[in-house]
Structure formats: structure tokens, C-alpha cells
Amino acid sequence: MYIKKIELSILIALVFTIMLSCLDFEFTSNNIRNSVFRLHILANSDSKYDQNLKIKVRNRLLKEGFEVFENSKNLNMTINKANKSLKRFEKTAENELLKNGCKLPVKATVAKTNINIRTYGNTTLPAGQYYALQIKIGKAKGHNWWCVMYPSLCLKSSTQKIDDVLDKKDSEIVKNKNKYIVKFKVCEWFEKIKSLF
Q1: Quick check: 7 pLDDT over 70?
Q2: What's the rounded Cα separation, in Å, for the pair 36 and 109?
Q3: pLDDT digits over 154-183, tens only?
Q4: Per-residue CA distances from 60 to 67, 87, 118, 121, 155 (Å)
């Protein structure tokens, strides 16, 4: 009986320690989420034609986004610039579609949306709710595409780096996926559970 109490006490202490560790990691992950701005493009459908159009729109919007967000200093400034440029993004996407013989409508919004763990080169961002420029092409029923517009991690020509917007601790996390993979997964589960409520 005494041994079972000790085992139970150890188990409770272990669970409590893991929870504290996860909460600290969740707090850091939240700092990361509140420092970057994503791009989310939803294709009209999963047809090869619509998916190819999505990629063409993506390429054009990444260049356009780089021009719009080039001098952004933080997430709030980026969100404000995005909101002021929604018509510009829509027009850019529509022009790219027209150039390729397509007349589908485009809807651009700034939305807070749930994103799974994503890796861009040597940078891995935790799952969770991020602000994003969301581009819906036509019915927006096809596979989607994600990237980071601020800082611009999707353009090789970009001078912006993730270190420019994250502190040292946050940078360490996003650049060392293998060291934090278990915590990334736990964080992803936590975010999924949180989104249910």
C-alpha cells in the first residue's frame, strides 16, 4: 500500500512536470505565432489545371507581398498593410488568372487560421492559430498552400530573416526541429484540443 502511494506520488509529479514544461513551450510557441504573418491560398479545386493556377498565383503574390511588407517592423504593421492592400492582392491574383485564360473570382481576407507544424528550409514553425493573408480562388475547394509572408521565408531573394522578428529563445526553437519535435507534437495536440472549445 505504501509503495503504491509512492508510485502514485511519482506519477503525479511527473505529469505535473511535463505539464509545466508544455505550458512554457506553449507560451514560447505563442510568441512565435504572434510574430509571423502567413500566406494561405486555396485553389478552386484539386484538378491539375486549378492546382497549376494556384502555383502561378502564389508566385505572383509572393513578389507582391514582398513589395507590400518589405518595410514592416512587426506583426501589427504587417496586418495593417495587408488589410489596406486586400484589393491590390485580389487584383494581382485575378490578373495572373486572366493571363492564364481563367476568369475565376478571387477573395482576399486577413484571417486568423489554424495551421499544422510546417517546415520551411531549416525553419520549423509550431502548430496553432496564425494571422494570414487568405486567398480564395473560385470555389476554394482544392488543396491549399501555406507560406510565411512576414518575414518573407518563401522568397530566396528576401533579405528578411526569421531572426529579425524572433528573440534568441524563439529562434532556437524554430531552427532546431529535431531537438523539439516531441514538444512540437504535444503543442499541436494542445492546439487541436483548444480549438474544440
Answers
A1: yes
A2: 16
A3: 755 455 566 565 656 556 655 665 555 555
A4: 11, 15, 22, 21, 11
- Where would I find the beta strands (DSSP E) of 16-105? 37-42
pLDDT range class, residue 47, cuts 50, 70, 90? very high
DSSP output for 152-193: T-S-TT----GGGTS-HHHHHHHH-HHHHHHHHHHHHHHHHH
Domain ranges of the chain: 29-196
The position carrying cell 531537438 is 179
φ, ψ of residue 119 to 5 degrees: the values are: -115, 130
Q: How far apart are CA 139 and CA 136, in angstroms?
A: 7
Strands (E), 73-157: 106-115, 118-120, 123-125, 128-137, 144-150
Q: In this structure, are residues 83 and 110 in contact, taking their beta carbons and an 8 Å threshold?
A: yes
